TrEMBL record:
This is RlpA-like protein double-psi beta-barrel domain-containing protein. It comes from Streptomyces javensis.
């Protein structure tokens, strides 16, 4: 999987478990793309499609996030530790509009608004699941 170095976005990363919607980890389903697996290095992007955008509405938080569909590859870098992971878009999310102005900081670096959800496998590659959110930069 090729992982890019062109800056795409900054914001908060959270983690989720693949399911048929925003269900619990044990729920069945492959997410909006049909390929989501919690054990894989994957992500949910709030503008994976128009239907996705209509649900997540990051624009209501001032985020005009570009569309990147199912199968798009991104590099997500933890802005404090520098750890990074390559992920493939496999679902729609996070519901950015529900967390407008939420901020995560470390070492004086702060990022605002949830802009990407990572599977547990991807999130734990760059941070601790117990932290819940991380300030990140996203590249393609």
């Amino acid at each position: 999987m090729a992982c890019g170095s062109t800056k795409l976005w900054n914001g908060e990363a959270t983690w989720f478990c693949c399911g048929s919607a925003w269900g619990p980890c044990a729920s069945a389903g492959g997410g909006a793309c049909g390929t989501c697996r919690s054990s894989a290095l994957q992500a949910a992007w709030p503008n994976a499609s128009k239907a996705c955008w209509d649900i997540t509405r990051p624009d209501l938080c001032g985020e005009d996030i570009p569309r990147r569909g199912c199968g798009s590859v991104m590099k997500v870098r933890h802005d404090c530790s520098g750890a990074s992971v390559c992920v493939t878009v496999s679902d729609c999310g996070p519901r950015t509009r529900g967390f407008c102005s939420e901020s995560t900081c470390c070492d004086g670096v702060c990022r605002t608004n949830r802009v990407i959800d990572l599977t547990p496998a991807a999130f734990s590659a760059i941070g601790s699941l117990s932290s819940g959110t991380l300030p990140v930069s996203i590249f393609e």
